[in-house]
Amino acid sequence: MEPEPTALVGGMSADDIMPSAAQVQAAAAGRGTHPQEPHTGGTVGRLNWLRAAVLGANDGIVSVAGIVIGVAGATSARGLIFTAGLAGLVAGAVSMALGEYVSVSSQRDSERAQMTQEKRELADTPEAELTELTALYEAKGLSAATARTVATELTARGALAAHLDAELHIDPNDIPSPVQAATASALSFTSGALLPLLAILLPPAALRVPVTFATVLIALGLAGALSARLGGSNIRRAVLRLVIGGALGLAFTYGIGHLFGTAIG
Ligand SMILES: [Zn+2]
């Protein structure tokens, strides 16, 4: 029996909304399914990656700038300032890499464990799993009969893939690599950290602090603009937030360094 065509958006008939073969192919490949789509599947991964890199660079800029400006508030000895900045760069990069490694490893382990358990359940209780899948599609708003059809067809095509997608939201082709994530975050931190390190090292003593301030604020502004653009949010607001926050942070660390440097040294 043909199902009654339900009322569709804007008086369109069911035929009007049937996707073309090309659209189906694009959707399957995770690409955009209509021409003006801003965030297509393929670029979302790249954009997230780029955003993470910008955030890591931000971290490097702010924390090493804080260290070198703070030490410069206490001493004008270039060797000391440089050593402190370099130590901050290395410590920061190691800590970022380690944190990322641990977090991505445990995410990967838990995804693998879930996949193993799902495989076992599918082998042991296929009936109950089909019912479960049907319930998941009913819960999304499909009628019981449609949900049953969807679940049955998807199970016939590949039960594990169907459950990973609908139940666990895991893409088995996109399991993250801990080493790759750790390396990327250490590199992005380091690239940001080099900026204040060079800015405090290269100019003559009298200009060190102002040059570093200016360099850091410009870099933060650029980073803010870039990450807002990538995330599709308001650029002006993101830039202001970062630049004002950065300026306050630097002024604060310079003040602390100056205060304690003169009081204790
Ligand atoms: Zn399941």
Structure description:
The chain has 265 residues and is mainly alpha-helical. 78% of the residues lie in helices and 0% in strands. The chain contains eight helices and no strands. α3 packs antiparallel against α5 (144-168) and α7 (208-231) packs antiparallel against α8 (235-264). The chain is elongated. The structure holds zinc ion. Zinc ion binds at residues 118, 121, 129, 132, 163, 167. Zinc ion (ZN) is lined by residues 118, 121, 129, 132, 163, 167.
Spell out the key features of this protein.
single chain; 265 residues; mainly alpha; 78% helix; binds zinc ion
Radius of gyration: 27 Å
Distance between the termini: 89 Å
Beta-strand fraction estimate: under 5%
For the report, how would you describe the main beta sheet? none
Query: What is the string of SSEs from the N terminus onward?
Result: HHHHHHHH
Helix run count: 8
Stretches where pLDDT is under 50 for at least 5 consecutive residues are none
Shape: elongated
Mean pLDDT rating: 87
Helical amount: over 70%
Structural class: mainly alpha
Bound molecules: zinc ion
Short description:
With 265 residues, the protein is mainly α. The protein has helices at 21-28, 41-74, 78-124, 126-139, 144-168, 178-201, 208-231, 235-264. The protein has eight helices and no strands.
